[in-house]
Amino acid sequence: MTTAESRTFDVRHVQLARAAFAAIAALMITFSSDHSAAVGSAVFSGFAIATALVHLLAVWLVYPAGRRWPSASLGAVTLVAGMASGLFPLRTVTGYFVIVIAWALASGVIELVAGWRGLSTRTARREIAPGVADARPVAPVGPRSESRDAIVVGALTILLGIALLCVQPAYSLTYRLDDAGVTGTLTGITIGVGLFGGYAAIVAVYLGIAGFSPRAAAPVEADAVVPDAAAPAPQADRKDSA
Prior knowledge:
Blueprint: H1 11-30, H2 37-61, H3 69-86, H4 93-123, E1 127-129, E2 132-133, H5 146-165, E3 172-177, E4 182-187, H6 188-212
Helix pairs in contact: 1-2, 1-6, 2-3, 2-4, 2-6, 3-4, 4-5, 5-6
């Protein structure tokens, strides 16, 4: 059986891969003067498909049985959103907002719930006998634990969806900078693409720091064997002396 110690890849590799793709998306949006729906949809499509592949590969390469549902769910939702955003007929202002908002709310909730369940599971003690809790200390969960990182990223993703809901896609404001002699138009899609770029930059920095941070020891597994020292010693049979 494959154990956590024998795995070539672990959670930090998933976080670093996600950080890398988020950083690429943030740089593409930051250094592009065109924040149209076509460009925003194309960048989001590439980001989503690459991130989905990371999640789906992690199902087999990183997570053991019983802990695969968050990565599989995130991979499926993100892959569908990335492929939909890559379709040319959907690369419109309305299509961009609908796809990104739906993805942000769905994936954010999944990651937030997974992180919350992870924290609850790690703080619970198993019973070694009916009514008898395991007295061994649970391994500490550090501030950079996977579950807490999932909660933070999930909350940030939900905030992205809420922020995009507050943007009016048809918004348009023409401005002029007299000193520089520059005239431009601020539109709803420009704000929407910029919000995604800002989200990608924050997630890239956070997951990058999380991936390079030291890890706490793994908690005691539920099926761990109780040491012999904890078990009561067998009583030797005594015979009455003649």
